[in-house]
Amino acid sequence: MLFKNGILLSQSFLLISVLSLTLMKTETGNAKPVKILADTLFLKSLGINPTLSDSQLKLSIAEVSEYQADTISHAAHKFHKCGGFERLPDSENMTESFASMRQWRAQAQAFEFIGNPIPNVEKKTAIDTATKQVSEENLLATVRWLSNYPSRYHKGNSKHVEDLAEKVKQMLLGVTYPYQIELIEHTQTKQKTLRVHLQGKDHPDELVILGGHLDSIVRMGGVAPGADDNASGSSNILEALRIIATQPQASRSIEFFWYAGEEGGLIGSSEIAQNYKQANANVIGVLQLDMTLFPGEGELVIGDMTDFTSPWLRNYLKTLNNFYVGAQWKEDECGYGCSDHASWHRQGYAAVMPFEAVFNTMNQNLHTPKDIITPELSFKHSAAFAKLAIAYAMDLSNSTLKPTF
Questions:
Q1: Alpha-carbon gap, residue 365 to 71, rounded angstroms
Q2: Which of 15, 73, 283, 367 has the fewest CB atoms within 10 Å distance of its CB?
Q3: Which residues pair with 35 in a beta bridge?
Q4: Which residues have a Cβ under 8 Å from the Cβ of 352 and sit 6 or more positions away?
Q5: What is the pLDDT of residue 95?
Q6: Cβ density class 85-114: b for 16+ within 10 Å, e for less
Q7: Structure confidence at residue 100 as a pLDDT band (50, 70, 90)
Q8: Across 54-68, 154-168, 235-249, least confident range
Q9: Are residues 384 and 301 in the same domain?
């Protein structure tokens, strides 16, 4: 997770200076530079000079070595951030991308100016019944299973991804309509992303997407259980798939992602979102679940990340919450690249990320060996996110609603 720019101003100047000196080191040889996108303030605080900046978006492009990219990621963890940037392909025209993002931002501001109209949604008995099937015991078992891997670091192997794919394969044996289980390879990490596609009956080309990152990390290497970050969101997505797979075939297609390499710069989701954009994929909406176990504001109080997300989709999710979950919501911002929804947002797709708390009260054990199952975590709290995922997927995949931006 990459969080508020403001935290940089409150951290130790000495720490920033040390990290800046580390980042100034260069590698020998002719290694290809890595192009990254991040908050301008974050890059400058680490002594990195941008090659292109956008003052309105407060985002910048920089070229760094692979060594520096890893160091930036570890530096970000000192500020309770994940990765802290998005890796970019060399071929992408970021001047055009910035222009598009400014346009989407203006549209979002216009939407909010007219009072955030609520989407026309009605409560449905089938969805209410499905959300009541969420099992806290299942969530606990999945988080325990995933956090028992010594590490799910993206530069390691994909055994945990392949093991999850096998679990999903067994889970979907009873599904009678077309579906696909796929392990997606990436160019910037050897870790794979797991994708599950449930084909829609009437509009299979229209995609309702939900996902979370499966990788974990600790500062400067070591054991990385990642129970909250992000075995929690991954377990929510798996539980949502289990229940949705028992429902009648939806009108639109539903896709479930367990992304690779989020902690290394949104690697998996960035490549996938770019490929979908190039293919002109008709993505209706994207839900991201990243850290759902620590009730920093109290149980069933959800952090609503308002930056680089769709206001329409946020309002839609809140409406579903009123029908099927009953949680409270508190608005906050997390900065660019705080999770995989940013990859989809940058490609022009409506995305949303409900979070376990607001920034100041989030789990402070992320990216450490202490990110394990403890009494402070709440599976009742986490279950609310699984219910939201089910309501979002079932309702949006069986409607004609489309976000306006």
A1: 20
A2: 15
A3: 63, 88
A4: 285, 286, 287, 288, 305, 309, 310, 313, 314, 317, 341
A5: 87
A6: bbbbeeeeebeebbeebeebeeebeebeee
A7: confident
A8: 54-68
A9: yes
The CA distance from 152 to 148, in Å, is 10
Decide if 190 is inside a domain.
yes
Residue ending a domain, among 57, 77, 96, is 96
Structure tokens at 170: 């067994």
pLDDT band at 16 (very low <50, low <70, confident <90, very high): very low
Q: Which of 18-27, 155-164, 165-174, 201-210 has the lowest mean pLDDT?
A: 18-27
β-strand pairing of 252-259 with 52-54: unpaired
Q: Are residues 289 and 362 in the same domain?
A: yes
| pLDDT higher than threshold 70 for residue 108 | yes
Of 149, 389, 360, 128, nearest in space to 254 by CA: 389
List 87's β-bridge partners, or say none.
36
Structure tokens at 178: 């077309």
Helix, strand, coil shares of the chain as percentages rounded to 5?
A: 40, 15, 45
Residues 141 and 78 in one domain: no
> Into how many domains does the chain fold?
2
Host H or E run for residue 60: strand 59-64
Range of the domain at 316: 125-396
Same domain, 33 and 179: no
DSSP string, 261-273: -GGGTSHHHHHHH
**Burial letters 306-338, b for 16+ CB under 10 A, else e:** bbbbbbbbbbbbbbbbebbbebebeebbbbbbb
- Choice between 89 and 1, residue whose per-residue pLDDT is larger: 89
**352, 153 Cβ separation under 8 angstroms:** no
**Better pLDDT: 127 or 218:** 127
Residue 94 has pLDDT above 50, yes or no: yes
- C-alpha torsion angle, residues 93, 94, 97, 101 (rounded to 10): -170
Determine which helix (DSSP H) or strand (DSSP E) holds 395, and give its type and residue range.
Answer: helix 379-396
